[in-house]
Amino acid sequence: MILEVTAATLHDAKVAQEHGADRISLVTGIGEGGLTPSYGLMKKVKETIHIPIFVMIRPHNQSFQYDEDDLQTMIEDIHYAREIGIDGIEIGCLTEDKIIDEQALKRLLDAAGEMNVTFHLAFDEISDQEKALETLVSYKQIQRVMTSGADKSALNGIPHIKKLLRRMKDKDIILIGTKGLKPENLQAFLSVTPVKEIRIGSGVRVNCQYTKPLDPRSVKAAKETMNKQK
């Protein structure tokens, strides 16, 4: 099972790697759901960390709708991440009607080339998620979809997550459970939800606060809980 940990600093990334994370989700603006990190942070983390690094590509927190200026910025960010060897990106783009903006998505995927691609929590703003999954599956570059079951917490979203997993059976795409998860409730989530990858943000930080650094003990505890599910 894969544990992805959100890192907002080089120190975060070091702690995550040292204490059991399998992958880093590198962001800034962590309390705003994650924004694109600086070039300097991308470079330093890439030079230091040997586990896979995925970078959030999100230029602002206003919405998941992007105009031409936004898209040009995102494409340049993807090109830079790809150039320095970042392993993957996390993207999501919607129309005003809260459906997948395929025109924007295609441009971002073109920029990503052979990089790993996750469709991030923009997915949880889509009303017809089953239809959206069918759309995402058609893009072979998209390997993962992040969701909390369209709820504030993945624990509350368990019934919907299980429904999505049934819909995705035999599909070549991975569902990542996220939001509201922490070592104390991870076993309860994993025992009834057959996901293979988890992304944890504030749940492995000191006092479960986004403004605090990663807690090494929490990262280790989360990974130990996941290892028991094998």
TrEMBL record:
GO terms for cellular component: cytoplasm
Predominant location category: cytoplasm
Superkingdom as given in the UniProt entry: Bacteria
Keyword Cytoplasm belongs to the record: yes
Localization (cell): Cytoplasm
GO MF annotation, one: copper ion binding
PANTHER family: COPPER HOMEOSTASIS PROTEIN CUTC (PTHR12598), COPPER HOMEOSTASIS PROTEIN CUTC HOMOLOG (PTHR12598:SF0)
UniProt-recorded name of the protein: PF03932 family protein CutC
